Amino acid sequence: MGQHVGQNLSKLSGFFQEITGKIRGKWDEASMKSAIEKVMLKQMTIRTASIKFGVSRSTLGDRVKILLKGGETTPKFCCSNNKGVFQKTFTDEQEEILYEHVKALDGQLMPLSRTEFLKLAYNLAKRLNVCDRFNKEKRMAGKDFYYEFMNRHKDLSLRTAEPTSLQRAVGFSKDKVDRFFDQLTKLMDKHKFNPTRVFNADETGVSCVHNNNLKVMSVKGKKQERGVETSPYF
Predict the structure, then answer these.
(1) Judgement on whether residues 151 and 167 belong to the same structural domain of the protein
(2) Does the keyword Ligase apply (predicted)?
(3) Are 150 and 184 in a shared domain?
(4) Burial (CB count <10 Å: 0-12, 13-18, 19+), residue 107
(5) With contact defined as beta carbons under 8 Å apart, do 221 and 164 qualify?
(6) What DSSP letter does each residue of 129-165 carry, written as one string?
(7) Residues 105 and 73 in one domain
(8) Of 192, 226, 223, nearest in space to 209 by CA
(9) Structural domain includes residue 170
(10) Higher pLDDT, 208 or 144
């Protein structure tokens, strides 16, 4: 009996050596994608797929979890390096552009909500033609991307905005009105549109006032986060 148990332990040890010898980058990406496909199509469990295709069970589980959270259903959107570790969607330079844009909008009293930010990230990924794991049906990045982005940019936070009328925000004076038209002229010159493409949405039934309970992305340290609310007298 002891000999029988010893043989079983030997076989079991060899089995685990065979499996663990294929993890930590020693498996190929094609096998991982095949394993992901089987799991996502519910044709195999994570454990069965990892054994059949000789890939890391933990890495396979992590990738499937990310795909499920992001809403993706096809493994072709799974971005990784040769070691099986997920890469950032954007390079440091690309993410810096996104980060500066978020801050610029906040400074103009037009901060983004989380949903608006995730849609912006999705559109930027499409514009730059980068590999992403974003939700193609909702056309927006996933919550994992949001939390990772906020963790890398700790000066940003999600805060409840207080509506502020445009008149109160900028001050109704000749200097401010002149500045407005200076900015308008620059935009018209930059984007080459003529006066017929400038529209006034006031009193048209199109609401320009945001939800009072809406949370927006803002730079930390401000006394109160505000969002512009239009006034019928401005």
Answers:
(1) no
(2) no
(3) no
(4) exposed
(5) no
(6) T-----BTTTTB--HHHHHHHHHH-TTEEEEE-EEEE
(7) no
(8) 226
(9) yes
(10) 144
Average pLDDT estimate for 15-20: 42
Segment 163-172, tens digit of pLDDT: 655 555 555 5
How long a stretch of residues is the chain? 234
Spatial neighbors of 76 by CB under 8 A, at least 6 apart, are 33
Tokens read off for 103: 């801050």
In a domain, 82, yes or no: no
| 195-234 b/e (C-beta count within 10 Å ≥ 16 → b) | eeeeeeeeeeeeeeebeeeeebbbbeeeeebbbbbbbeee
Q: What is the dihedral of CA 15, 19, 20, 26, to 10 degrees?
A: 140
Contact 104, 217 (CB under 8 A): no
Q: Is pLDDT at 174 greater than 50 in this prediction?
A: yes
Average pLDDT value over all residues in the chain: 73
**Total-model pTM:** 0.51
Q: Token match 């992305």: residue?
A: 217
Give residue 1's Cα distance to chain centre.
Answer: 58
